[in-house]
# Entry
Amino acid sequence: MIAISATAVPDHLRGALSRWLLEVTPELYVGTVSARVRDELWDATSACVADGVAVLLYPADNEQGFEVRTAGQRRRRPADFDGLTLIAFGAMASTSGLEGNEITTPS
# Structure
């Protein structure tokens, strides 16, 4: 079984994923496909994710029992730590013009 989370991706990609997988909740696709189909779906997903984010989870013969692949602009990225996949957080881009952790309240 695989799971693909595809956030803010083009509609044509969502349609392509729904041909092979069930969209159990918005932007979350699950299903059972062969490794070849999984890799083809991931190649198509990562090629056209644009400004969105995509995450693929699939079974693997390792300590955790799964592998993680990511594509697109993201704050979280998988990092290998002695054979375990952990999630590393990057800095958030500030689009509000606030510096650091300042909080402004209305007057």
Summary: The radius of gyration is 17 Å.
